[in-house]
Write a structure and sequence with these properties.
heterodimer, A: 115 residues, mainly beta, 0% helix, B: 110 residues, six-stranded mixed sheet, five-stranded antiparallel sheet, 59% strand
Chain lengths: 115, 110
């Protein structure tokens, strides 16, 4: 079946603009995660959705970052008033259920460049 | 403070040898630890999960150990091949989410 998909694959934006990144998880997966990976760095946790529960937003770096998950499926990560330090690859992952015993399936990522 | 440490320097080994990668953690008490492989320009791919009550887990040429006393996991690839060249990430659980290490880049040369 289809894996996790993300769009766009690349996004170049000017400093100060807003951007929206989209994630389509694997059908039937109840948990969805967003991560950020800067060049040569590990994955930085941003936010976690599990079913209808309130999301875990503890990793969002500032109030310019927000995310939604509509209908328990597609998720959108929004970055307002982008800054150059927001440049990174944004990765989405889904798992069958929430919690660490479940392996995460990652999308290919969106490479964001803020000029 | 909480830390997950993996060798930041690349590991270069000859084909056929065993590669051993290290993951050390501080101020975590994970019930699970996972290992992922990441190729350039791609998302990570799950390899193995090991639970705190398991000392060792194997899958084909891969072996993972988990020592909760030493707060360390070792990841072994036996009979390594150039196709094993990639970055390997360890991740441990922290209240229902995974926290990833920075990864170790493995280069297997013929």
């Amino acid at each position: 079946g289809a894996g996790v998909s993300q769009s766009p694959s690349n996004k170049v934006t000017e400093k100060g603009k807003d951007v929206e990144l989209r994630c389509d998880p694997i059908s039937g997966h109840t948990a969805l995660y967003w991560y950020r990976q800067s060049l040569g760095q590990g994955l930085e946790f941003l936010i976690y959705f599990q079913g209808n529960s309130a999301p875990d937003k503890s990793g969002l770096p500032s109030d310019r970052f927000s995310a939604e998950r509509t209908g328990g499926s597609v998720s959108t990560l929004t970055i307002q008033r982008t800054q150059q330090e927001d440049s990174a690859v944004y990765l989405c992952a889904s798992s069958l259920q929430g919690g660490s015993p479940y392996e995460q399936y990652f999308g290919p990522g969106t490479r964001l460049t803020v000029t | 403070s909480q830390k997950i440490e993996q060798n930041s320097e690349a590991l270069n080994i000859q084909e056929g040898k065993t590669a051993t990668l290290t993951c050390n953690y501080t101020n975590y008490s994970p019930a699970y630890l996972q290992w992922y492989r990441q190729d350039p320009g791609r998302g990570p791919v799950f390899l193995l999960l090991i639970r705190e009550n398991e000392k060792e887990k194997r899958k084909e040429r891969l072996k993972v150990t988990f020592d909760t006393t030493l707060k360390q996991s070792l990841f072994h690839i036996t009979a390594s091949q150039p196709a094993d060249s990639a970055t390997y990430l360890c991740a441990l659980d922290d209240t229902d989410k995974l926290i990833f290490g920075t990864g170790t880049r493995l280069q297997v040369f013929p």
